[in-house]
Each structure stands twice: as C-alpha cells, then as structure tokens.
Write a structure and sequence with these properties.
Elements lengths: L7 H28 L1 H4 L2 H30 L1
Length: 73
C-alpha cells in the first residue's frame, strides 16, 4: 500500500507521530549529552549536526514532493 492511498487523517497522524518521535530523539540526545561530562563540551556541535540532519531530511522530502508533483502534470 502506497502513502498516496492513505486518507488525510491517517497521513496527518503519521506525520504527527514521526515529528514527535524525531523531537523525542533530539531531546534524548541532548539530555544524554548533558549528563556525560566528556560529551558536554561537544554538545553544541552534536545538536547543530542533528538539527542539520533534520533540515537535510526535510529538504530531501520537499524535493521529492516537488518532483512527484511535476511528474504528475
């Protein structure tokens, strides 16, 4: 079953759960980084890297959506 066959409500909850899972991952990594004295000095670099990864994944998804929309026309 493809994603395009999901109803709008199911797609909304799928996106919501994905967002919450990613936010929980970022918060957990930040918390574990603060608890570890060795990693505490690298906290800013780790968080910037994870946020950069999140932004990259979002841009790839947007690019895929745009390509799919162009190919449909």
């Amino acid at each position: 079953m493809g994603v395009n066959k999901l109803s709008a409500t199911k797609m909304f909850f799928s996106n919501l759960s994905s967002t919450l899972l990613w936010m929980a991952t970022l918060l957990l990594v930040g918390k574990l980084t603060m608890l570890n004295p060795v990693l505490e000095s690298y906290q800013a670099i780790l968080i910037k890297g994870l946020i950069g990864l999140s932004l990259t994944l979002m841009l790839i998804a947007m690019f895929g959506i745009i390509l799919r929309y162009i190919n449909r026309r």
